[in-house]
Write a structure and sequence with these properties.
Blueprint lengths: L2 H6 L3 E4 L2 E4 L13 H13 L6 E9 L9 E10 L3 E10 L2 E11 L22 E3 L6 E4 L15 E7 L7 H12 L3 H6 L14 E12 L9 E11 L2 E10 L4 E13 L14
Helix pairs in contact: 2-3
Length: 281
């Protein structure tokens, strides 16, 4: 596992409900921090408001770019704290400017009253998937060997990824944050798959893309040292936007998380005179 990623997600206490995070440096492509990384930081800081509970869900909205060479601060604001659930918000800032906001729900799991879950898709296991390099140090394998960077590829907007962290930390909240981080990684290239002439290799060059909002809900505990499948689908693109949904399964078929994402997918164009270069929305 990438020690740099774990270290970049380690909160530094500044004041009650206020935490700092070190700059991720080379983990930020183009000098900009990946939205999934910001979501993970919002999740960890929010969970620190109630150390007795795990993350039930985290929703992040990313309004301004965050530079990868400078630290950030996250201030959490609890809404309500109960025996079973704790809720609240969080604000992420850099250089004194708010960049992102999060809403978090924490919980202590109870006994089952009723129980069911979505089934593991009929997908080849990790031993049959294509190993690929990963910027964040995840051990990653692509189902079917799909080359999402190829603009000439045309196929349904479905994409499967097996991943694991062999040296995952024991902290359950950090593990949830790492899964949130990974879940945000692939829905934009998945949205491009049905459209010949567009591929991930064109992102930030010929087309402008970025995560606007991402939500993930956790259902079951999991072991990050074992394989997890991210099975996802882009269900809509249009009007310069894309929307997708996904699920995270263990290799033995347990559903451990569900997620959704809204993103921007538009023609690349130079910034307008006088516009704020940090603004995403």
């Amino acid at each position: 596992m990438s020690d740099r990623l774990v270290e970049a997600l380690r909160p530094i206490g500044i004041a009650p409900n206020r935490h700092g995070f070190r700059p991720p440096g080379a983990l930020g492509a183009r000098g900009i921090v990946f939205g999934g990384h910001l979501l993970a930081q919002l999740a960890i800081a929010s969970a620190r408001t109630d150390g007795d509970k795990a993350i039930s869900s985290i929703h992040g909205i990313f309004g301004r770019s965050v530079l990868s060479n400078a630290p950030v601060e996250v201030e959490s604001s609890p809404l309500a704290r109960g025996r079973t659930y704790t809720s609240g918000g969080a604000s992420l800032s850099q250089g004194g400017v708010e960049r992102a906001r999060g809403l978090a729900l924490l919980n202590s799991p109870g006994r089952h009253l009723i129980r069911h879950h979505a089934e593991l898709p009929d997908t080849p296991g990790p031993e049959h998937a294509l190993p690929v390099e990963d910027l964040f140090g995840r051990e990653t394998r692509i189902v079917g060997g799909t080359d999402r960077s190829d603009p000439e590829l045309e196929q349904p907007a479905l994409f499967g990824v097996w991943f694991r962290y062999r040296q995952a930390p024991a902290d359950a909240v950090v593990g949830q944050a790492l899964v949130a981080h990974a879940s945000a990684s692939y829905l934009i290239p998945t949205a491009l798959l049905p459209h010949r002439g567009f591929g991930e290799s064109m992102v930030h060059k010929d087309i402008s893309t970025g995560i606007l909002a991402h939500t993930i809900s956790f259902h079951e505990p999991f072991d990050l040292r074992g394989w997890l499948l991210i099975a996802q689908e882009s269900t809509f693109t249009g009007h310069g936007n894309a929307y997708g949904e996904g699920r995270v399964f263990t290799e033995d078929g347990r559903l451990v998380a569900s997620f959704s994402q809204e993103s921007i997918v538009r023609h690349a164009s130079p910034p307008r005179p006088g516009s704020d270069p940090d603004r995403v929305l």
